Structures are given as C-alpha cells and as structure tokens.
Fold this sequence. Notes:
Blueprint: H1 3-24, E1 38-40, H2 43-48, E2 56-61, E3 69-77, E4 87-89, E5 95-99, E6 105-107, H3 122-135, E7 138-140, E8 144-148, E9 161-163, E10 170-174, E11 182-184, E12 193-194, E13 197-205, E14 214-218, E15 235-236, E16 239-246, E17 250-255, E18 257-258, E19 261-263, E20 266-268, E21 273-278, E22 284-285, E23 292-294, E24 301-304, E25 313-316, E26 319-321, E27 331-333, E28 337-341, E29 344-346, E30 353-357, E31 363-367, E32 370-371, E33 378-384, E34 388-392, E35 395-396, E36 404-409, E37 420-424, E38 435-436
Parallel strand pairs: 1-2, 6-7, 7-9, 8-10, 9-13, 10-13, 11-14, 12-15, 13-16, 14-17, 15-18, 16-19, 16-20, 17-21, 19-22, 20-23, 21-24, 22-25, 23-26, 24-27, 25-28, 26-29, 27-30, 28-31, 29-32, 30-33, 31-34, 32-35, 33-36, 34-37, 36-38
Antiparallel strand pairs: 2-3, 3-5, 4-5
Amino acid sequence: MNRASVANRRGPHLAGLFAVLLLFFPGEVAWAAPQPVLAVASIAELKAADGARTPILQVTGYYSGSLLGGGLFVWQSGGRPPDNCTVFATGNGKGAWVRRLEDGVLDVTMCGAHWDGASDDAEAISAAFTVASANGFSLSCPGGTGRIASTVAPAHFANVVLRCRGMAASTLTCAVEARPCFLFQNPAGPQAVQAPQIYDLGIVSGRMPHGPSVVIQYNSIGGGFRDDGTTQNYMMRPIVQRVQISGGGIGIQCSKCFDGDFSLDALSYQGRHGFDIEGSDWMSLGDAGSNRIERTGGPPIRLASHGTFGNGDLVSHNDILWPAPGVETYVYSSARTTYLEKNFFEGATGGACEITIDTGAAHAVARDNHVTDRTVKNWLCVVPQLRQADFSDNQTTSHGQGPARFENKGAWKDLFFRHAIVHSGNWSEEGFPSSWTLLGFF
C-alpha cells in the first residue's frame, strides 16, 4: 500500500473526529498549549512579575530566602485591589495575583509572619485573623517558633479557627509587657459574636511583673456586663484546647462569654490566675479533658459574677498543683451557680481555703473532689447564705487539714428564702461540717 492510499484512508477518520468535536463544542475549536509554571523567590518578586506573559507562578516563600508563606498564584487582569494575603496587586496596576488555597486553610506566614523566633509577627497574625474571618478560611501556623512583641488584636475574628501543629511543635514567644498577647474584643452592641477558637499551640511569655497582663483574652472587664447595647457583645463559644501557656499575669481570661470550653490545656507560672472567668455563663473548664494548672501566684481558677452574669460554670477534672505559698484558695467562685466536680488539689499554700464560695453565689455544687493541702485552714469555705447547695463525696487526705467552714453571710432578703443545703459522703479528719457561724447576717 502506497503513502497516498494511507493518507486517503486516514483522512475520513480525522474528518469524522473533527465533526464530533464540532457537535459537542460548537464554535471555534482552538488548541491551547499547557502554560508553564515558573517559580519566583518572594511575594515582592511576584508583584513585579508580568502576569500577561506568565499567568501562573509558584512562589517559594513570602520573603526571599524563606520557605514559608509561598504558594501557587494565578494572574487576573483588571483593577488594582488592596493586598490581603490572598490577593496581591501587580506593580503596573493592570491586574492582581490570586492565591490558590488548599482546603480553605490560610497559614499565618501567608500574611507575612516570619515565624523565625526574632521578628514581631503580631501585625501579620492580626491580618490573618481578619482575612480568615472575612472569607471563611481556617488558620494554621507552622512548626517551629514565632514571636510577637505587640498585642495580636484583629479588627475581625468571628468564626475563625486557629489550629497549629501541636503545643510542643508550634511555639509562640510573647514578648509583650503589661498588655495581652491575644486580645479579641467585641464592640458595644446587642449582637452576639462567634468567638475564635485556638488549638495545638504553645505560648511562652515573661513572668510578672514584666510579662503580659493576660496571654489569651476574650473581651475585657472594662467592656461592661449590661444586657443591652451599651456594653460589649456576648463572646459566643470561645474554645481553647491543647494549648500550653507559660508565664503572664493571667493565662486565659473570658468576660461576658457564653457556652465555651477550655480543656486539655497546660498552664503554669501565671502571676495571678490560670483561668479567670468574669461574668460568663455556662463556661466549662476541663469538661472535654483535664487541664493542668501549676505554680500560679494567685488562685489558679477564678469565677466571678457581675450582676446577673456568671451562671452555671463547670470546673471538672482539673489537676491544680502547687500555687505559690500564701495563695488564699485554689478555686474561687462568686458566680451565682458553680459546679466543682472531680478536681484534684495539691500543694502547701498555708492559705485560708482550698475551695471558696463567696458572696454573689446562690447555688453551688462541690462533688467528688480530692483535696490534699494539709496546710490550709479549711478545705471548704462558704461565705454567703446559699439558697441551695450540694457538698458530697469529697475526700481530704489532710493529716491536719482544717474542716469545712460556713459563714452564712447574706442580705436581709435571704431570711425569706428556704435554704436547702445537702452534705453527705464527705471524708475529713475534722468531720463535715464542724465550723459554723449561726446567723451570719451581721
């Protein structure tokens, strides 16, 4: 068979294939060669590149010489949008580079965090929260060590989840003094805001008096606790889990918060409190897994009421160890309703109490706790005339530890309430209770 006959036999087949293409793809059928993917070293080089000639670029790192914060970018023609971690305008103003994100996860290094242990990454981390909140992204941080020398205070943070590599793998050094490391502050108004969540991170800060006032702060005491638009919004469902915090005045503080959880955390060497829950409702400490709190300079756990705020807070399964000598109590609560269950206390404070229920409380439960500090004067101190309480199945291995003490202080209106105080199954060398004041109204 000659070449002409072969060509004649191939011709109808090619014509048929072309006809099929026209049937399914009417109009012009053009052959598009695959675009080469070229690499540049930094975001600065990306912004200077000609997107019309090379519309796809791989960036090695956010900064030249770094392997962090880079990624794949596609050029789009048009106006000049502002840079925001995922979009970077070209130098000629004729288009922008758009970042391709995998699974909607934005790393803080993609917003300019150096994560080198020396640079101040606070501004970049704040920007990452704002961009993630606006676009529905999750946040991540790499392994290794980052550093902040100013407060991370994003303008927007609603619904953001920050998940790093692990409390031992990802470390953030906080070099802030007398201010929070992280501050998530709601504005005044009646609309509740979904709080950010933080997972799998270690935070190391200076100790008092030169360390931060708070390491992670949700809202502020000064933001107010009225149930109207004149004070800060509710902080809804804040979650901090598998986070290790060393140093600072307070480890985690939450004001006017609702339905959050702080569990599986390790807090140590706070100058004041490990956890400080101010005027917050239905918050839990340890319910999703035990917290370990040790070597604090003040009460390791503080629950405070602010008027009608401070209800139903749960403290359970916490390992509370060795507060500084002189600390007056391990757990302090003036919340209207408190549940303290299955916690372990150990140390030698020489303080007044291991558990303190203070004025402001109306209802309290302390159940199945194991208290071991033989140096305290009373393992349980109840100041107010409670309207209802259950103190049961607590154990003290005291060898000289003081008994429970009830002061029964209250306002005149407490005389008109029927009080139901239940105590049973408690074991103490001193008995339960053996220290009462009869009236307590004076």
